[in-house]
Design a protein that fits this description.
8-stranded parallel barrel; single chain; two-stranded antiparallel sheet; alpha/beta; 42% helix; 13 strands; TIM Barrel
């Protein structure tokens, strides 16, 4: 099984400390391009462009990265409900043409009623996933058919056509979530089922669940994990940096994050927030301290290159073949991870490392 490594675009700011009222580095265009170019030179296959209220617009950032890189694949996160699926398909097809067929799409159904409400979206959890199913049905039809008619629970199309057509055919779809609806929709439409870095037994259980659901539909799905890494030449250095990373957290920022956890109706987010206990350590070399002030992916593998490899290998042994990893600050850590960690996976990856 070939392993693919992707990096992350810090479109809400960056720095060597998290949980500040203002980031140490603002996410301006030149910095984000530098991060993407550094990740490309470091040997990463892709780079995730996040979506949500705290982030810059993912389509615009993804377009900028496409035009300033040559090989790396931007994984552009989008939310159903804010743009019609027909317009999303056209935007994706246009960028697919401009990039020479090197974009992927991460469809995010949403996680917090408060955050969604800030953007004017007040649809309930279950209805959001039903809308996502309808959204992806339209995408698939636009990618596969011409002159079709469709009427779903949220979208209707008459004489639908996609101009321009995708360069790469059906653009790969990443989809995540721990609810029954999320796993079923992944089985129906997803190419990669994406989880956060949870305890290995929980990741295994969800992989098997989605695998069986997809098999029942005559489909196969690949599996990914989104997680941070803190890798240093010695274990002590790695844990010292982990503690330093969260050493300047603003109490107001942490309190706001705590309220987010209480309000979020995402099953996956609830699972992640339960890791915020004790010293935040769990499993082999894993740490949930980033989740104190970061929603979504709040866990990291911490240690020497060999220890971090062992922590990631657990997921590989469970069936994971896609990793979206990151570290703070993202510019310097892309280089560090490339030098210390990625060479240990040289024989398992699709691309040339180092």
């Amino acid at each position: 099984m070939s392993i693919r490594f992707s990096w992350f675009t810090p479109t809400n700011g960056d720095g060597a400390h998290i949980g500040l009222k203002q980031p140490e580095r603002e996410p301006d265009l030149s910095y984000l391009i530098r991060v993407a170019q550094t990740a490309e030179q470091a040997g990463f296959d892709g780079i995730l462009v996040p979506v949500g209220t705290p982030f810059l617009d993912s389509w615009m950032v993804g377009s900028a990265l496409v035009h300033h890189t040559k090989r790396i694949r931007p994984l552009i996160a989008i939310r159903p409900g804010f743009i019609a699926p027909s317009l999303s398909a056209k935007m994706a097809a246009t960028l697919d043409q401009f990039s020479g067929g090197r974009i992927d799409i991460n469809i995010v159904a949403g996680g917090s009623p408060h955050e969604l409400g800030q953007d004017g979206d007040f649809v309930s959890h279950d209805e959001r996933y039903e809308r996502a199913r309808d959204f992806m049905t339209v995408l698939n039809k636009l990618w596969e058919e011409r002159g079709f008619n469709y009427k779903g629970s949220h979208y209707a199309i008459k004489d639908g056509n996609l101009v321009p057509p995708n360069r790469q055919g059906k653009i790969p779809i990443y989809f995540g979530g721990s609810s029954e609806s999320a796993k079923q929709i992944t089985a129906e439409f997803g190419n990669v089922y994406l989880q956060w870095g949870e305890p290995i037994e929980e990741v295994k259980a969800q992989i098997e669940d989605v695998r069986q659901r997809a098999a029942a539909l005559g489909r196969t799905v690949e599996f990914g994990v989104r997680i941070h890494v803190i890798v240093r030449e010695t274990e002590r250095e790695a844990w010292e940096f982990a503690e330093s990373l969260v050493s300047e957290i603003d109490p107001e920022v942490e309190a706001r994050m705590s309220r987010y956890y209480q309000q979020a109706d995402s099953v996956a987010q609830g699972r992640m927030s339960r890791l915020l206990q004790g010293d935040y350590r769990f499993g082999k070399y894993k740490w949930a301290g980033i989740g104190r002030v970061r929603k979504g992916a709040g866990t990291a593998v911490v240690g020497t290159p060999e220890q971090v490899k062992e922590g990631l290998q657990e997921y590989i042994d469970a069936g994971v073949s896609h990793f979206i990893i990151s570290g703070f600050p993202h510019l310097e850590e892309a280089e560090r991870v490339s030098k210390l960690l990625l060479p240990l996976f040289r024989d398992q990856t699709e691309i040339s490392i180092g």
